[in-house]
Every structure is written in structure tokens, then in C-alpha cells.
Design goal:
176 residues; 5-stranded antiparallel β-sheet; 56% helix; elongated; Ribosomal_uL10_CS_bac; Ribosomal_uL10-like_sf; large ribosomal subunit rRNA binding
Length: 176
């Protein structure tokens, strides 16, 4: 069924708005994937704050104009599934990577982060990015390390003094 001009403009505006606020984009070809598998993928995407859209390439090119993801326009050929990560840059990459393991027909075409186009071979690189909570815990451990080391060092001086005095006492007891 043909889509009218009004509907096309609405799709372009919606995808442009999503792209403007997304942290990363993963483009994939989902030909040959069953409907039940796609339903499961969409459910996982909602759980991980990933916006999935299937858009005609001509509309996608117009929608991505003026955004950081305009660089993927050259890779758009054939049916394309767009996964926009809204809160975690690696969420869509992790989602697509896990889905591709289960579905041999699912193929990632391209990735984009901050206006940089990455090939499909870089999927692991993006998927291994820590989540926000993981990054915060790493940051906190790095910030806590100097304080912990200072406390351990300050505790070591009196401990060493006590051990030395105990050794001197034991030595004098054995001599007497």
C-alpha cells in the first residue's frame, strides 16, 4: 500500500527527532528473520531503551540529513532496520550482536557513533562499551583507590612499630 506525502513527512520528522537525540546507530538487514524472532527483538529493544525502526532508504536518507548519522547514507541498500541507542551507546550493538548469534539471516550493515561511521566488523568494539552503571562503578573505584592506598600506608607505620616492639620484647624474654 502506498504511503501518502503527509505520512512520509511524519516518518521523516519522527526518525530525524530520534536520530538527533540518539547516542549511537546500528543499521542491519533483517531479511529472512521470522516474525516471532522480530517480535522478540522488538521486546528486547524496548527493555534496553533502543528505538527500532524499519524505514525506506529514501526516507531514511532525508531523515538523517543534518544529524550525526548522515554518514550511514552510503551503506543504505536493501531493507534496513535502524537501532537507535537512546541511553547507552552500546545498547543497540549488544542487542544486535546477541540477536545475530541466534539468527543467521540477520546481518549488521553499519554502525555510527558521534558522526563516525564504523564497519560491521566494529560491532564488538561498540558492544563492549560499558553501560552507564558499569562506567560509574569503574570511575568510583578509580577515585577511591588513592584514598584506600593512603589509609593502608598510614596504618602500616604504627603496625610496623608494634611488630618491631613485639620482636624486641620476645628477644629480651628469650635472653633472660
Amino acid at each position: 500500500m502506498a504511503i501518502g506525502l503527509k505520512e512520509k513527512k511524519a516518518i521523516v520528522a519522527e526518525v530525524n527527532e530520534t536520530a538527533a537525540s540518539a547516542l549511537s546507530l546500528v543499521v542491519a538487514d533483517a531479511r529472512g528473520v521470522t516474525v516471532s524472532s522480530m517480535t522478540a527483538l522488538r521486546q528486547s529493544a524496548r527493555d534496553n531503551q533502543v528505538m527500532l525502526r524499519v524505514v525506506r532508504n529514501t526516507l531514511a536518507k532525508r531523515a538523517l540529513e543534518g544529524t550525526d548519522y548522515e554518514c550511514v547514507n552510503d551503506t543504505l541498500a536493501g531493507p534496513s532496520l535502524f537501532g537507535f541507542s537512546m541511553e547507552d551507546p552500546g545498547a543497540a550493538a549488544r542487542l544486535f550482536k546477541d540477536f545475530a548469534k541466534e539468527n543467521e539471516h540477520f546481518e549488521v550493515k553499519a554502525l555510527s557513533v558521534s558522526g563516525e561511521l564504523l564497519g560491521a566488523d566494529q560491532l564488538d568494539r561498540l558492544a563492549k562499551l560499558p553501560t552507564r552503571d558499569e562506567a560509574l562503578s569503574i570511575l568510583m573505584s578509580v577515585m577511591q583507590a588513592p584514598t584506600t592506598k593512603l589509609v593502608q600506608t598510614m596504618h602500616a607505620v604504627p603496625s610496623k612499630l608494634v611488630r618491631t616492639l613485639a620482636a624486641v620484647r620476645d628477644q629480651k624474654e628469650q635472653a633472660a
